What we know:
Chain A is 40% helix and 11% strand. Chain A is an alpha/beta fold. In chain A, strands 3-2-1-9-8-7-6-5-4 form a nine-stranded parallel β-sheet. Chain A starts with 10 loop residues before the first strand and ends with a helix.
Amino acid sequence: MRALEDRLDLCSINTATLGHKAPIGAVIESVARFGFGGICPWRRDLETEDIHAVSRQIRDAGLSVSGYCRSTYLPAATTEAFRANVEDNIRAIDQAAIIGAACFVMVVGSLPTGSRDLPAARDQVAEGTATLLRHARSVGVRLALEPLHPMYANDRSCLNTIQQALDLADLLEPGAPEAPDLGLAIDVYHVWWDPALAEGIARAGAARRILGFHVCDWLVPTRDFLTDRGMMGDGVIDIPSVRAMVEAAGYNQLVEVEIFSDRDWWARPPEEALSVCAQRLQTVC
Amino acid sequence: MRALEDRLDLCSINTATLGHKAPIGAVIESVARFGFGGICPWRRDLETEDIHAVSRQIRDAGLSVSGYCRSTYLPAATTEAFRANVEDNIRAIDQAAIIGAACFVMVVGSLPTGSRDLPAARDQVAEGTATLLRHARSVGVRLALEPLHPMYANDRSCLNTIQQALDLADLLEPGAPEAPDLGLAIDVYHVWWDPALAEGIARAGAARRILGFHVCDWLVPTRDFLTDRGMMGDGVIDIPSVRAMVEAAGYNQLVEVEIFSDRDWWARPPEEALSVCAQRLQTVC
């Protein structure tokens, strides 16, 4: 496993970690000043910005783009709404191409309002992802399916394990390609509990499908389903053990911090959050 | 799949559904009066009671005992504490024998305070369950491992999928016994999200290891990790689809309602909760 001490250049900051409070220009500057190697912006960061200018600023700051967050949920109650979701993701993939993101992070969605049909939602995800994969290839963007913790199975994602996401990737991009265009973003928060974690990571690595690796921590107690993720070291996830598996499986790209924390880290000054991220990445990850 | 209309005799009420407010004697009487076929008491219901008298009352009321809830968590930070947990479960298994429970429901626990070592917790669960299985056999009680939703992986259970629980059962009780003493309690709340649900249920049924089947619903939004389960029909779980799988796999015992709901059902009169359980079991399960 790579040593992260004095190697913040191997690490990246997902802008959600700072709560989307400052303009992206200021965030890029702070992240670069701390010595991180990359950044992962969200679409909302770019809404009122000139994306070409932001892209130049990121490159000029010496940062790479570990990913671009994130897809609009795919499943919908009507064909029209489903198509609109796909179209919206095509626009986002074009943006991912402009900023040179290592991958477009896909949080795929799940049951449309009123539905209890998980298999149908999964079918829509497969159909939509197939369309997006064709477009992504045409603009040179790789898609990273992010399996989400099963507590989000009702709305945020009907992809909930590494094995399930790999099954979908193998279905849509068969033949064990040397450089897959469809892979996974593996976030410790979503997968740490999985009894098949080691097998899943090994399979993902063997298929060269690990496109991103995210860290944060699982707090005890967790007080909110979405916005109570912990800083690395403050929870119960054995992060070094998961990173060791991911890197043994061949992943050699950035380690990205993504923390949703309205009670704690979003309430602190961004510089403090970045400082603690830097310290914890080097000591407990 | 069995029709449940006019067949409340195929259904059971877990006493947690009523919030443990009334004495067990009154609960037994209410459950029987509504025509349910069974009841699943908790240890706390019996703490100040004469367990033999309660057992007689249940039988006299014409109810069977679909299960007895539940195990003390097994993993612990010290050998002494681990042994104490095993001993406490042995006492509970003796109680399960006295009340003639179809199974002793095992919620196995997970990380002891201060630990991040899930594999070690799983090892303690295996070791403790092996000991309990020997004792359970000696008193004629079957053990039902209950895989819990992965959102409980940190504390309540390091067994989080049907496949994982079956792996443990096969390990501790090998050789595909005709009438296993170690099986599973399958609760829709914990397993509905699982992409391997159909395979897991089929495997459990083929191994004759389905010892209990619990229903409730997953509310959107869910406002609390523990006590915000929904009444069947009020959430997004496709309960008939899960019950069809479980019964196709050979399960022909009681359908048990277990709802933890401090915001809603525990705040209502028990008779109202039982009435709605009866109605929903017959119409949406």
